[in-house]
UniProtKB/TrEMBL annotation:
Residue ranges, annotated region (Disordered): 70-89
Single annotated GO MF: zinc ion binding
Signal peptide location: none
Taxonomic classification: Eukaryota, Metazoa, Ecdysozoa, Arthropoda, Hexapoda
Protein name (record): GH18784
Gene: Dgri\GH18784
Organism field: Drosophila grimshawi (Hawaiian fruit fly)
Amino acid sequence: MLKQHTFNRHITREDVTYWRCSQFAVLRCRARLKTKLDTLTILNSEHNHEVISKARKYGSLKRQRAEAEAAARASDPLRIDAKDEPGSA
């Protein structure tokens, strides 16, 4: 745990272990750590979610993911969805 965020072991090679945010699979969080013996290195400290301290309600991730995708589309002025193109139904 680092700053109340939890991490899962991803890969271990010799004396180096790579960790990724426990929300990687569900929220595609890109936060990463590396440990080598007793040394911790933060590879990416940015989480795309708040600290999650308790179990989520069933179905809440679909809503949260849809909101995150909508925010990403809104922040990318060059992105054009197929439904926004002329002549699409």
